[in-house]
Design brief:
heterodimer; A: mainly alpha; 14 helices; B: mainly alpha; about 0% strand
Chain lengths: ~290, ~290
């Protein structure tokens, strides 16, 4: 048994193809991103080493910080929207008939490509023929705004499809976690005279703290990476008012052909993602984990 | 049924009212999740005049299926569609096979460095695709793989590997040791144990990961958009984006194109919804 199952050659054969792909296509590129960030490079011609110039430029680049601000705002929205998802999951996990069906319907938008969702919502937001403004005019608003063309509105307008797309995902995660709580615990509390509110907030929520922490990390780190939807719907416009870090990186590299500077932005994005994950994990780490199974 | 303290007629009424309110709320959310898609279906069956003159949610007088025929035959949509199909299938098969091999070697075999390798894959979950995009582009450029489907397929396999392994892990850990012990007694080689015994035993979790991978790959945008520039290799997500660029004013054609692009996933969901729900839950909660 031991001899067969600790055959190193076989283990290597099984692991290496995948590991090689991971190293070559994921790990080496992130190192290279940091390295390219030290270069002046148009992506095709020769690279010139310019030290930390790109990173210094990054720190003074107002447009970059504006896009970073938008990114953080989206992260904040996403984290806050978790409260709503949690409430819906709490309701769903109670003894509600058809909970399964609801949960599945909620999930549908998440399965669709961001490009299709973006195109659909472009039509919903269409200033004159979109379903939103048609509706607003029907109920008496004479001049509804062109949602995606207003610098002050565009970020909020973009947040709605994001909310719409991911609602089912988080509701599903919370629902699954809540359903994992043994019925006996809830039953015991009920017999002791706990009200539904007390059961929800004093018993169920504390029991799924770990899952809530994971979703906060997922939501925040996910927002740092938003790209497809914004790229298709506004491409960062109007006038940079919906630019986020990922779209700014893409613009610098693949539109302005400033691959060195784009890499610096990409490397910054990587550091922020890792840092935020680490900080959130640390901030929400608990000493005692709850075991109930 | 246990008896609840304080269950008199008044609170029973209150409870019923509460239920109605909750159902109303849940249905409202469900409606909001579904209505945009219903609207999409409706306008994909109308012409511009009908889209603009009729109420948004009115049924078309005669459904204009010709919108679908038109976008399928006139543009490259059918080509993009088949590219999406084969690129998705190839990527899913290799991702699931490689991930199964790795998970088997990590959970069932004994060798030094198992936890390090597992750690590398798990940290991979946190790495944003965007931060790797520029080096990947220049790497594929050097290998003459830009504008080649291999660039996209390899990227899909590498980037979906961590999540696939993560979903497989729990399942593999739960398999009883006796399975291998009995097989080794009978003189099975490791390959035989993996391909003939373990792999068939993991069929259910494999189908879950395959579906999750399929959804990711079918919808993927940024790799194709960056690496592929020739129409003949584009997939549906990128193709749809360009196609709509040419048809900015024909809402029926746009609607039909979008419907074609989301249809396979919707059909898969109708047939396999339990598996999909399971897979998404497994892929996230255990993290």
């Amino acid at each position: 048994m031991d001899k067969v199952m600790s055959n190193r050659l076989v283990a290597a054969m099984y692991v290496l193809p995948a590991l090689l792909l991971l190293l070559v296509l994921v790990y080496i590129p992130i190192v290279l991103t940091g390295y390219y960030g030290l270069m002046q490079w148009d992506g095709i011609g020769a690279m010139t080493f310019i030290g930390l110039d790109n990173y210094a430029r990054l720190l003074q680049d107002g447009t970059f910080w504006q896009s970073a601000n938008h990114t953080f705002l989206l992260a904040l929205f996403s984290a806050l929207s978790l409260i709503g998802y949690l409430m819906i999951a709490l309701v769903l996990s109670g003894k509600i008939k058809g909970a399964n069906l609801f949960r599945k319907i909620y999930l549908i938008p998440m399965l669709l490509s961001s490009v299709a969702i973006a195109q659909l919502w472009l039509k919903i937001y269409h200033p004159s023929n979109g379903v939103l403004n048609t509706f607003l005019e029907a109920i008496g608003f004479s001049n509804p705004p062109a949602w995606l063309a207003e610098p002050s509105l565009v970020l909020y307008a973009l947040f709605v499809p994001i909310l719409w797309q991911y609602a089912g995902f988080y509701i599903l995660i919370y629902y699954a976690a809540l359903k994992n709580i043994p019925e006996s615990l809830v039953e015991a509390a009920r017999i002791d005279g706990a009200s539904p509110w007390q059961i929800a907030f004093r018993i169920k929520l504390p029991l799924i703290t770990e899952v809530i922490k994971v979703t906060i990390v997922l939501a925040v780190v996910g927002s740092l990476k938003y790209f497809d939807l914004i790229y298709v719907m506004t491409d960062g416009g109007p006038n940079g008012s919906s630019e986020v870090m990922a779209s700014y990186m893409y613009r610098q590299a693949f539109r302005s052909f400033d691959f060195g500077y784009g890499s610096a932005v990409g490397f910054f994005l990587l550091l922020i993602c890792l840092l935020v994950t680490w900080l959130l994990r640390k901030a929400t780490a608990s000493k005692d984990t709850i075991q109930y199974s | 049924m246990p008896t609840y303290p304080g269950t008199d007629r008044g609170s029973a009424w209150l409870r019923r009212f509460g239920y109605v309110l909750l159902y109303f709320l849940l249905s409202l959310v469900a409606l909001l999740q579904i209505l945009p898609l219903v609207w999409l279906l409706l306008f994909s069956l109308k012409n511009n005049q009908e889209v603009f003159d009729m109420a948004p949610f009115s049924l078309p007088a005669t459904p204009r299926w010709e919108n679908y025929v038109k976008v399928w035959t006139e543009g490259n949509i059918s080509l993009y569609f088949f590219n999406s199909v084969w690129i998705t299938v190839v990527s899913v098969v290799f991702t699931v096979l490689f991930a199964s091999l790795v998970t088997f070697a990590i959970t069932r075999m004994r060798w030094k460095g198992r936890s390090l390798v597992l750690g590398l894959f798990m940290v991979g979950l946190m790495i944003p695709v965007h931060s790797t995009l520029i080096p990947l582009f220049s790497l594929f450029l050097k290998l003459h793989l830009t504008d080649h489907p291999l660039s996209v397929i390899l990227s899909y396999i590498a980037f979906n590997m961590p999540i696939t392994i993560m979903i497989l892990l729990g399942f593999y850990y739960a398999l009883p040791r006796e399975v291998e012990e009995a097989a080794v007694m009978d003189g099975c080689s490791v390959h035989r144990i993996f391909f003939r015994i373990i792999l068939p035993m993991t069929a259910s979790v494999i189908s879950t990961t395959a579906i999750i991978n399929m959804i990711y790959n079918w919808n993927e945008f940024i790799f194709v958009n960056t690496f592929i520039s020739t129409d003949s290799y584009k997939t549906l997500t990128v193709g749809v984006q360009n196609f709509i660029g040419q048809y900015t004013t024909d809402w029926g054609a746009i609607g039909a194109t979008l419907m074609i692009s989301i249809m396979p996933i919707l059909i898969a969901f109708l047939i396999l919804s339990n598996r999909i729900v399971e897979g998404i839950a497994a892929g996230s909660v255990k993290g």
